[in-house]
Hints:
Radius of gyration: 22 Å
Largest sheet: 3 strands, antiparallel
Amino acid sequence: MSDISYSPKSARALNIAVCHHCHQLVRGHGRCSRCNTLVHFRKPDSLTRTWAFLIAAIAFFIPANLVPIMNIKMLGQGEPATIMEGVILFIEHGDLPIAIVIFVASVLVPLLKIVALVFLLLSVHFEWARTARRKTILYRIVEFIGRWSMIDIFVVTVLVALVQLDKLASIEVSEGATAFCFVVVLTMVSALCFDTRLIWDIKEESTKGNKR
């Protein structure tokens, strides 16, 4: 899929900005005439904020996968289990679909989301002007699937509520679940801070340079 041709009459070129709060179109930057919110052509400090939240998410991603996320006890005996150990446990008990869902939602999706955001940030930082349309689509995919990463915490929460059979069996939440929640929230906030219009700004500058 090739990039669509860039029109020089962009909103910013026409001195038009959009309010991020109520989505009112505003002539120039200043305050929105509808909600009185400060209006900017681009999200202020978009790259800095995106990098900050993303780096924090990467820092929490390590303990989220190495620190136990739940403590499973059977007949009074048991040991803490990380996300991968939980996946293996479900496989051993014949629950392959649940194991696949947890692995994809808790390991694969957060990792791919982090990699995708790093790629988008680097593409803006180094001004990679090609495939702007594909980068925008990639961002939309990242923003959409990121919220489903909480499936693992949801599964653990359900198990904790259901598997409480006194001394026979019990499941308790461990520290890894907290770290994983931070990963999900921080990656979601990081994606929200990223302004995709920066990608098209680079495309615009590249197009202008080629016409000179």
